[in-house]
Amino acid sequence: MRSEDVPFTGGPLDGRRLPVLVGMTGRPPKVYRVPVPAEDGTAGTVLVYRLRATGANRLGLPSGWHYEHDPAGGPAEGPRWPWSRPRADPAASDPPPAG
Fold this sequence. Notes:
99 residues; mainly beta; 4% helix; 34% strand
């Protein structure tokens, strides 16, 4: 596996460059989780960083990557597929009954 030094912005890792394993396409994972153990031996916290493009070239392809701190640490911003979004009002989009 290949690794790449990726910069981190925000949070406790701000300004650091850490080696991150990249996939076959050369892209790091979308979410990077860093477990931080508590000092008293109890369950610690998990820092969540989300992958962002640094810039784009003339073709619109990303020229680099960096991780931004996500203090909420929740799930991704939205549904993965457009057709998996719940409809606002299912009755409004159903056709009227025939007959």
